[in-house]
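User: Can you fold this complex?
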Amino acid sequence: MSLSPASGIGRFYKHSAKIIRFVRQGCTNRPFYHIVVMERRKNQHQPVIEQVGSYDPMPNDNNERLVALNTERIRYWLGKGAHMSEPAAELLGISGLLPVHPRTYMTAWRNRKAAAEAEPVESAATA
Amino acid sequence: MSLFKHIRQLNALQCLQAKRQYSPAALKSASLQYDKDPQPLFTDSETQRLLQSMTQLQLDKVFRQRTVPDNSSETKFMTTLQLEKQFVKTIEKAKHLLQMPPVVKIKQDTERIISKDPAMKDFATTKFVFTDITFGLRHSERKVVVRDVDGSLSYASLDTTKRMNQLYFPLEGRKSYTPRMFADEQLLQRCLDEHKYEFILDRLLVQYEPYETEFHNISARVYEHLNESKQFDLLRSTRHFGPMAFFYAWHSCIDDLLYDMIRNDYLHNAVELIALSYKIHQVPVDYKQTLSQLEQLQPTPAERAHAELLSCLKTKDELGIEQEIHQAIGKTEQDFTADELSLKFIEQYIGSEHSRKKVQLELALQTLKEVNLEKLQLYQGLKKAHGVQAS
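Assistant: Here's the predicted assembly.
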């Protein structure tokens, strides 16, 4: 798995569908994602048109997940009509660049529900 | 998997605690702080001129060998004209190397929330930090935002912003952790006791921004230690001398530095230091007249260094007898008149209520006067002996 420059080496047709998506870099048990623009029909490990950010899903020492976004280029590609994969759209929603994705609200609601359900059980166990 | 997650969270918590023990806030904070914003006074052109003049420009100190991997020099053959051009360039480069780091007030961290979304509460177990990595932005312009677990989106704190900038756009020499030198009280004290002031200040400048609390605390500690050990010569002709003098003038403890300047026969510097202190504390004494008179009599540090370089080109015969006398004594007629003016001004300062160490300063001044008198007599005698017309 070789790294291509951020400006990308992927060849693309002018009117083909582009997509902003994650590419899984990293290794076994240690995910790390590049946020890239590439042709929609291509496999994630094929050369990309442009890398526009990175996402580290594992929390660091300060308990935060780091995301880097090249907002200027992302806005350019969105303006050109690029699509977004669902995880990428969710992340952009969380960043405040786009409206929050409905799926984020769903996860949040489910998490809250699960926590509320777990609480009485825990209090019963301690009592 | 969930066990791993749990262990990881525990580790993170432990790290946080360990960091708290080891943070620079644990350092003994310096007693002297700027009580209001010093920046307008510091960047004032007159203050800058005074500070630059006080710093002096000793070329062999500016271009000394440093502890860097490559200290090599290049040897070239040049015509005299090329050499003169090169001299001018050298002076410019030296001036550039002596640029002072700014003295600004501590920047306060304010919480700026962009949006609150209660419906997003608990969307993830950790917060997200987003950094804008758009090409060509300055570090200060780069936006870093944080989405907290409770769903609120806010601008990151100064600390986080700095960390992210260092992560994505690392500055050479700056560490992502606090160097042990600044975190550990004993190590810093050892550096101070070994008089490695320039090293500390250089590293401080690389590691911290001038508006950070640590920068103010540590630099104040260095200056205070320096004021006690009185090794001002270590910082003379480096970029830290100006902020140091400004610090002393601001906190009205210039007497030790003044004593050092008088001892080393830098009388015009002493006058500038007093003038600076008058300017900062708005003492109603007219210093501008003395300063302008002195300026007419004496060249700026850059001009002086340039003249020194140019004098290397001339052979001994070309110099003439007057120059030779000047070299032997180290002073010209103009210097003697300038000294007289400065002495009057300094005496006035010592007599006023602003000086704290009157006896010491007076003694130093007296010694200097005697030496100066001897030099003047020698100068006149030599001139007479060589038959040089008094101009």
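The radius of gyration of chain B is 27 Å. The first strand of chain B starts at residue 113 and ends at 115.
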